[in-house]
Specification:
Length: 679
């Protein structure tokens, strides 16, 4: 039985020892419970003392901060100097209220605090007034008040309260410490017993702790490796303690948070502390490496966005310049080159436009320049292929030079002449056609995006040049068309008058012929009358010959093609211009012939049917436009008018056909239409 009890004790010795320790701990707990109110009271007192000391310290601090902010703001009226002042004004009253609450709880005589509080409040209000004076420009008034040192007066009042309050807190602290020390002595006795009995158990506990320490070491080793693998690997660092591992992990996590916050705020120049060229390969796939990659990508995106915004804004600005000045080519050229040079922050620029007024003498003309020296600005004509500008026109490609010849061009300023570092020459291309060339000189190399921007601007300028030229050509063609229309109306009026005179002459000739016939009849009855009539006939004949001569002259000089036909369609008389066109077709004599004999049955029937209808209805057909062949392989556009020819009795005796050449007017209208369709 004894052996059984001994075995049971050995097996449960640790438990029994723990039970004993628990018993002692219970006794200790009872003692602790008895002294609990002492400890709690002591802790409360310490806390109150700490709060009171803190309030007294900050009371003085806020006064000093207000004074510091005021003095800085008086020196330089910059709002950044008011930071201490703003902090003091916002917090001093709350601190006084908290201090009053703590001292009241401690039993301090609060009548001693009232003067100090009033002095501080009065001084703070005075500081606010002086800040307002500075803000409104009355600095001297604030300085004069400050020279009176009102802060010292306030300090003399609240420093008395400060000394008394600190002495009161010191007294309370000493009393609380004495009570606490007595409690510690009593508790030490119990703790000694607990320690004496717990030593055997401690040995066993140490063994367990060693095992736990090994587990802990493995845990920290895994933590270190995870920190290196997944967060940041600084490279070869030996002899890291557990605290170092924890501190390094916390530091890496803080740096990760700071890095992310900086990137979120747009700071893409942030760097990872400790990342070097040597350990960079070790951090490609962990958080540090991924954050660096993300920073670089976002930085690249930011740069691309800035370039895109810069380009878009520039294109919009130059489109507006083109829109406003497109009616004045010279002003447009000067505005464009001036704004391009300024927008690119270059120093010189020239705008060369193709001058093609003469097909046999085409060249590049300097239409606008910016900051060119005298020699360069006088060279306003550049032949195709001459120099870099002429070569750029022929090759239709951008020329970018960073090695500028010494004698090429100088940038002139008030300090002297400087050779540029680069030259950019860009063709003004639109649909593979070059309208001109831009030449720019700069003291700094152009970036790739700036070159691409100038090339885009070149397309806009080329389009503007073509639009302006088209507008000018259209205007010129419209003016020419209006002039020709006026000439056409004048010719129509002249033709109408000629036709009226011709018809009147024919009617008069017919009437005279009848009168001659009547006279001849009467001459057989009366010889004397015949003689008289012969004289009259001779006079009338002379008149008829004169009128016939007038008609013949008109037929000779009139530019229109005039044909007089009888009722059967046979030619009675033709104008000279008509006869010349018929001669070109091989006809030498046409009087007495019809269109059937000269141009065939089909042509005769077509024209005669129209003339027959005109004679029947006795209504003219005017200004019929048609294509007319005047010679083999040669045709013109003509405006033909057909008028019934009447005698003096009103009977229709034939037709009068007048054809006017309108080929030039037709070609002008067609060219104008092509230009309008092109636009």
């Amino acid at each position: 039985m004894k052996e059984k009890i001994k075995g049971l004790i050995r097996e449960n010795s640790l438990i029994m020892a723990i039970y004993i320790i628990l018993l002692i701990i219970s006794v200790n707990s009872l003692m602790v419970f008895n002294y609990r109110h002492v400890i709690i009271e002591n802790a409360n007192i310490k806390q109150q003392i700490l709060q009171a000391n803190h309030g007294i310290e900050f009371m003085n601090k806020y006064v000093n901060l207000a004074d510091l902010g005021l003095r800085g703001y008086i020196i330089d009226q910059d709002d950044k100097f008011l930071s201490p002042y703003n902090e003091a004004i916002a917090s001093y009253q709350g601190n006084l209220d908290d201090l009053r609450e703590v001292l009241t709880a401690q039993g301090f005589d609060m009548s001693k605090m009232d003067p100090a509080e009033r002095a501080i409040q009065k001084y703070m209000k005075l500081v606010q007034q002086m800040v307002h004076m500075c803000a409104t420009g009355d600095v001297q008034e604030a300085v004069s008040i400050l020279k009176g040192d009102p802060g010292y007066d306030a300090w003399m009042i609240y420093s008395i309260f400060e000394r008394e309050a600190l002495a009161f807190e010191e007294m309370i602290s000493e009393h609380a410490s004495a009570s606490y020390d007595a409690m510690i002595i009593r508790m030490g006795i119990v703790q000694f017993l607990l320690l004496f009995i717990g030593i055997p158990i401690l040995v066993i506990t140490v063994v367990s702790i060693r095992k736990a320490k090994k587990v802990r070491a493995n845990l920290f080793e895994n933590l270190k490796e995870s920190n290196r693998k997944y967060v940041f690997n600084p490279g070869d660092i030996d002899d890291e303690t557990e605290q170092t591992i924890i501190d390094r992990l916390i530091s890496n996590l803080r740096q990760t948070s700071s890095f992310i916050n900086n990137i979120a705020q747009g700071n893409y120049n942030i760097t990872w502390d400790g990342l070097t060229k040597e350990n960079a390969p070790l951090n490609k796939e962990n958080i540090a490496g991924e954050l660096i990659t993300m920073r670089d990508q976002m930085k690249k995106v930011k740069v691309e966005d800035e370039i895109r915004i810069w380009t878009t804004q520039g294109l919009s600005n130059f489109a507006e310049i083109v829109r406003i000045n497109q009616h004045d080519f010279s002003v447009l050229s000067e505005k464009l080159i001036t704004n391009i040079v300024k927008y690119l922050k270059a120093q010189q620029g020239g705008l060369f436009i193709v001058n093609d007024e003469s097909e046999d003498d085409r060249y590049l003309e300097l239409m606008g320049c910016y900051a060119y020296d005298r020699i360069k600005s006088m060279q306003k004509r550049v032949e195709f292929g001459q120099g870099l500008v002429g070569q750029c026109y022929l090759e239709k490609e951008t020329i970018f030079m960073t090695q500028v010849p010494q004698e090429f061009v100088n940038i002139t300023s008030g300090l002297g002449d400087t050779r540029p570092d680069c030259i950019l020459i860009v063709p003004l291309r639109l649909n593979d056609k070059i309208e001109g060339v831009i030449e720019l000189a700069s003291l700094k190399p152009f970036e790739k995006y700036e070159i691409e921007f100038v090339e885009k601007i070149g397309e806009t300028i080329a389009s503007a040049i073509r639009t302006v030229r088209t507008t000018e050509n259209t205007k010129l063609l419209l003016e020419r068309s209006q002039q020709q229309a006026e000439e056409m109306r004048a010719q129509e009026e002249e033709m109408r008058q000629n036709m009226e005179e011709l018809q009147a002459t024919q009617e008069q000739m017919h009437r005279k012929n009848e009168e001659v016939e009547e006279l001849l009849k009467k001459s057989a009855e009366n010889e004397e009358a015949i003689k008289e009539q012969n004289r009259i006939i001779l006079e009338e004949k002379e008149a008829l010959e004169t009128e016939d001569a007038i008609l013949s002259t008109l037929m000779e000089i009139i530019p229109d093609r005039v044909t007089v036909k009888d009722k059967d369609g046979k030619y009675l008389k033709v104008s000279r211009s008509k006869m010349e066109s018929l001669k070109e077709k091989g006809f030498k004599s046409v009087v007495g012939k019809s269109d059937r004999e000269m141009f065939g049955k089909e042509h005769f029937e077509k024209s005669f049917s129209v003339e027959e209808e005109i004679m029947k209805n006795q209504k003219p057909v005017l200004n019929v436009e048609e294509r007319i062949e005047i010679a083999k392989g040669v045709s013109i556009w003509g405006s033909t008018s057909r008028v019934p020819l009447k005698d003096n009795t009103g009977n229709v005796i034939g037709t009068l056909v007048v054809t006017r050449d309108i080929t030039k007017e037709k070609e002008c209208v067609e060219e104008l239409k092509k230009l309008q369709d092109k636009n």
